[in-house]
Amino acid sequence: MKQKGDKKDKMPFKRIVSNNLFALKTIYAASRSYIFIFLASSILYGLIDFLTGSYLLRRVVDGISNGEQAGSVIAYVVTVTVFSLLIQLAYSWYWNVISPVQQHKIEAYVEKKLFRKAAQVELACYEDPSFYDRYIRAMNESYRRMNQTMQALYQLIWSLFTLSANSFLLFLIDPWLILFALIPFALGIFRRLEYVAAYQLGVEVDKVVRRKYYVCRTFYLNEYAKEMRVGGMYEAMLRDLKSTYKDYLKIMRKYGLQRAILAYIQRIGLEVITILGASFYSVWSAVFIGAENGGMSIGDCIVVLGSIGTVSYCLNGLVQNLAQFGEHALHLQDIRYFLDYENKIPAGHLEAPAGGDIAFQDISFRYAGSERYAVKNVSFQLRKGERIALVGSNGSGKTTLVKLLLSLYDPESGQITLNSKNIKEFTHSSYRARFSTVFQDFKLFSMTVRDNVLLRPERDGDEALVQTALEESGAAERVSRLPKGIDTMLTREFDDQGANLSVGEQQKLSLAHVFAEDTPFVILDEPSSALDPIAEYKMFENMMRATENRSVIFISHRLSSARLADRVLLMERGEITESGTHAELMAKNGNYAAMFRRQAENYLGSEVAEHA
Ligand code: ADP
User: Fold this and answer.
1) Which of 400, 412, 555 has the most ligand 1 atoms within 8 A of CB, as the residue to mutate?
2) What does the mean pLDDT of the chain come to?
């Protein structure tokens, strides 16, 4: 989807300023003193550079030509040197002792802001490549860009100060010299074009790099290790990797020549026209016209030769700086877009009630870019304390229904109510907090067993809670054999003693979370897919006991578990086609009964299945 502000190379001046101000304001909010000290030091540095550079040269040349006493010239040199040494000392201390701490503080502040937002954006955003690319760019660039904006401001203040002081000196010597100094400004347009090209290159390269990183991950991550060793996946991924290299080179070639020409024009303008031009002019004025005919004195000529380099360097830096602000603004736009993004799933201000009846009223939903309804005209009620089994073949819409219930997607039509109130009237956080959920593609975190069961900061008395939850989910025995029990880290990524559990064991652990929480609603999306039939049976039995007063929706591909539910809903092609208790649906002898018998035959043989 095309977003506001996508025409990045035509960003208006006002937005460039506002984006850079946004970065400075964010840094200011994170650390007030840092920004002031940082910017004040740029003025001090400018002052030192001037006093120990052009002004020192002029002072010495003037002193000698005016027959001044050597002592007063030396006194000036010594004073300036001592001043410079003291400032350098303070600067070095601040830069190495104070600054790293402050920078870390700012980084943490910015990350916190971004992560908070990331947890809020709706799931559909992750499926929109243009949003996702922006999101990744915002995450990767955020702190670095803000820091660079501040450094650009530092450079700007330093350049302006040094430039004013040196230009004033040149102006006093010969006002025409200022013309040479203005040339780098004219080169600014090329600098701007260069930055726009750099940004566009970055955007194109990002896409390739994202793909490349994905392919690289498949070579070294544990979760792909098996597939990469069997079949032709290794070759296929290698081919993909080669194609990303090719795409990368293509992009580099596309922008390489353009950037080289732009850089060359700037160098010629600066070094040939400004520096050599001003040097020729002052030598000509001093040697061919001479001071006695209104030309420059030899002393002034030496000062010009000494300071024109500084002036053009500052001017070039200034132009570069202004263009840099433009470049930073482009990236900061991504960060701002992301932070300003309003979740498209409407939410109200009401606190969700602690339980009650949930009703789906004629709900239909299609995924973005899809013609087909994933869920169509679905209506049903989940009454307080009721357990519903949601069954149906793969792709029939069960998970989508659950995601709609959790308000992770917004239905296209119809409404979902909790205690007769549309769930859009509740805040997302209070509403979602009423659910304990285990998804089919659940992920455990590289944290301790305890953290993975609680999935929240720990409180007093949690140890016993975790232990009971592990027993209920059937994971207690395995956890007791881990080196540090519930304090064992999962995965060995950060701890040599960490545990690598089998998928079934991981599933039991993720289920323990449901037992550790006392929410009114429980959603289990194929919680037993990796368990063997006996473990599955025990788990469901425990679950029914532990969730006695809670409303439960569970999706299971093994229909034997559906018998434990108060009601079974059969989904086919996004619609609920059968609804009733297991016995009712078996008596109805429809698709559910046929599916059930087919499965039972596989486990028990056809005769037993007939009597199920
Ligand atoms: P089930 O849970 O019954 O296996 P799902 O709810 O996952 O089915 O999927 C229902 C339909 O929606 C399927 O056709 C599936 O391909 C499609 N679908 C699921 N997730 C997405 C998605 N993120 N984007 C687009 N289509 C999706």
Assistant:
1) 400
2) 85
